Amino acid sequence: MDFTFTEEQQAAAEAARAVFGGVAPDGVPSPSLTPGAVADDFDRALWARLAGSDLLSLVLDPEYGGSGLDAIALCLVLRESAKVLARVPLLENSAAAVTVQAHGSEALRHELLTRAGRGEVVLTVAAHGRSGHDPAELAVTARREADGTWVLDGVQTAVPWAHNADFVVVPATTTAPGPDAASAAGVPGTGDLTGAGRVVLALVPRGHEGVVLAEQISTTGERLAEVRLESARIAGRYVVDADGAWEGLRELLTTGTCALALGLGEAVLRMTGDYTGKREQFGYPLASFQAVAVQAADRYIDLRAMEATLWQAAWRIGSGASGALPTAGDVAVAKIWASEGVRRVVQTAQHLHGGFGADVDYPLHRYHAWAKHLELSLGPAAAHEEALGDLLAAHPLA
């Protein structure tokens, strides 16, 4: 079998390396030394460069000014972004745009996608539920009115870039319809929504009435938000209802998080190799000691496992190929390796750097903070092991 990337995928990765090449990960103060968030906004200048290089429209169809590439190409770009800890909502914006493209109405697609690909509209996703441990789709309820308007109530925590994005994509579970639901069900473009228990995706505009943002600070020092929806009324054209829309969005977000973990881990292992190759003890480089070499080799194996499982998951998402397990199984395996692997990589790096690794003038501490965030984001390894066990029980392998 041929496991090489296509020319288009390789071109996307090369363009990403060119854009991220000048970004310095040590240019932001340590979160532990900053009283609040490290910045109020994401890196707008970098965002503009990504748009200018057509990397924001990478996975959009040519109809919307995109390149029509797949999840593998997106993950290649995300991998490069994590090597420099790029402070941009690339994953959330791309995943939300792909979901709107696949499941949104024609009017919504034409309103948002071209502008999102040019960086003029920024999308993010509320994917962590009320506490970060419960399903995101159960944290918010959605009730449709007779005029087609949706009323949202609930709380989503740790929403990235919510203070700066133009729209937050919020998964919500429908409640029992009101007395006029029968007439509301006939609203064009909304589908058969008269029943309860369906999951819809609402695109909530920034500053919308009934939406309250409470500031939260992530492990990385970035500004997050607790999004409180208090009878927020969302126009029907901004609500996406389709079977599998939320599941597909969550799988793409999780796989993209694995790509970020891989890129971060590769950068950290390279930093560790450079340091141990130059630092001497007893007249010899640290890298020449067997104990050091064995630890570095183990982390290299972790990264290769993270890479193999990532591309398997991204390929399943992009191709729609069938397998013994649903795509969610490949995504769970990738996230298990990403969570465990990136944790081991940064811990070994801290150990081999010694006291130098704790120096806040050296960027390793920031990589460690980002690694912890990625490890737990969208579920730690244990949560995905449980999900994988459930899938195996429901789909026994021959």
From TrEMBL:
Residue ranges of every copy of the Acyl-CoA dehydrogenase/oxidase C-terminal domain listed in the record: 257-384
InterPro entries: Acyl-CoA_Oxase/DH_mid-dom_sf (IPR046373), AcylCo_DH-like_C (IPR036250), AcylCo_DH/oxidase_C (IPR009075), AcylCoA_DH/ox_N (IPR013786), AcylCoA_DH/ox_N_sf (IPR037069), AcylCoA_DH/oxidase_NM_dom_sf (IPR009100)
UniProt KW Membrane keyword: no
Keyword match Transmembrane: no
Cofactor(s) listed: FAD
UniProt entry keywords in alphabetical sequence: FAD, Flavoprotein, Oxidoreductase
TM helices/strands, residue ranges: none
Acyl-CoA dehydrogenase/oxidase N-terminal domain sequence ranges: 7-120
Family: Belongs to the acyl-CoA dehydrogenase family.
Protein name: Acyl-CoA dehydrogenase
Native source organism of the sequence: Streptomyces graminofaciens
